[in-house]
Amino acid sequence: MTLLLGGCSCGSNDKEDPLAAIPAQCVGVRESVANAPSWATNKLSPELNHGAKLLPLLSVKRDVDAIKDGALVCQVQLSRSKQWDEVGGGAKVLGFRFGTPSSPAPDIGVIMAAGPLPEVTVIGPEDTYDLVYALPRPCLVKGDTITIRVWDVDSGEDQLAGAVKMVVDTLPVQAKLEAGQVICGGLSQELARAHASLSFAEFDRLPAVAAGGFTPKPGDENWGYPRNLGMQVPLSGAAAMLGWADPEVKRRQEVFSKLDDAWQVAVAHSMRETQERLPAPETWISLAPKPIDVRVGVMTCKASALFGRMKSVACEATLDVRNKGSKPLELQEALTDLVWVNQRGGDAGSPDVKLPPGRDAGAENPTLPPGQSIQLTLQVYPGTVASKTQPIFLKFRSERGVPTLVRVF
């Protein structure tokens, strides 16, 4: 789940004062935002962890004043009988899209304004009918209102699931949506800390935390980093209950910062060393055990004027594929394992690949006969290209679990 902020300057990438839109009387919220790390997706409302475990607590009656130092927790449930748009995702390979498959379930988006706080936009996980999120140390008093709008992110606000406005006296408050329902309950500080302990324990058990660091491994997923954002998820989960200013959250954030700084130095060194061992451009590289050889050419870039003033830069590299097997090779299947590796060593999605001019993919899956090769075009976007000191790799995933690094840009 991703939490973004709309209607104020609390977003992590906003250069304005993140406290400007938060009223002075909301001391706990201001303290939390002021202590939020730069990587936090949202400084006001961190991503919740283990949200399903909180559901039994939402129906417990509480006075709104009792959650001032705790957390407001809301659950949105959408109807399974409604026809939601089916939108797929992923990268384009030879005109066909690979990646996240289509699903009848929605991608829930919520915009909520709770009392005097600025609006919070919550984007939930893909393909789910249920979303749970939290606001730590809420600045609510009796008589305040909570307004919520819910929609399917895939189709935008034109497919609105409903909008409600609830007056807060005691919790929980709940209301029906056009295509679902919403309930908001509260946790005391004691209960919020008890739930945060799950995230604290998860963070403390991480191998990198227990070992005091980790070693980059070019042959492993994400260059050996222990799970994508492995330390940020439990940190955010604890902050969603207690706020970023909580001493236990801050202590673990300091641990993460030291480990993350050390990782960036170590992975940059490892990537430079790996780069020196890579085959030269235009060298055929085997993707065994698959009967495929590939060869990546030198990248070329061309700038063109955009709207008469701005420059648009397009970069491309040739990608030769050779079929060494005894059967026709389906190019789509062969190229779905092609992945970028970003400057921190993480898997960063698949590039777009085009057939040569005059050869249309059509409705059929293009194939390559045994013993033949074909030259494709690999699109390299300017934001993908790394600096000279921070290379970015192109790799093929392997059935053996060890990827083949084929090129650096």
Sequence-ordered SSE layout with sheet pairings:
Layout (H helix, E strand, L loop, with lengths): L1 E4 L21 H8 L20 H4 L3 E2 L7 E8 L12 E3 L2 E3 L9 E7 L5 E4 L6 E7 L8 E8 L3 E12 L2 E2 L1 E5 L2 E8 L1 H17 L1 H5 L20 H11 L4 H31 L7 E2 L5 E5 L3 E7 L3 E14 L5 E2 H5 L2 E4 L10 E3 L12 E2 L4 E8 L12 E4 L7 E5 L1
Antiparallel strand pairs: 1-7, 2-11, 3-8, 3-13, 4-5, 6-7, 6-9, 9-10, 12-13, 14-15, 15-17, 16-17, 17-22, 18-21, 19-23, 20-22, 23-24
Helix pairs in contact: 3-5, 5-6
Short descriptors:
single chain, 409 residues, alpha+beta, Immunoglobulin-like, 6-stranded antiparallel sheet, 5-stranded antiparallel sheet, 7 helices, disordered N terminus
Overview of the molecule:
There is one protein chain. This protein has 409 residues and is α+β, with helices and mostly antiparallel strands. The protein folds into two domains: 2-260, no CATH class; 285-408, Immunoglobulin-like (Sandwich). 20% of the residues lie in helices and 32% in strands. Strands 14, 15, 16, 17, 20 and 22 form a six-stranded antiparallel sheet that branches. A five-stranded antiparallel sheet has the order 1-7-6-9-10, with no helix packed on it. A hairpin with a 2-residue loop joins strand 12 (173-177) and strand 13. Helix 3 packs antiparallel against helix 5 (232-242) and helix 5 (232-242) runs antiparallel to helix 6 (247-277). Mean pLDDT is 80; it is low at 1-14, 87-91 and 96-102.
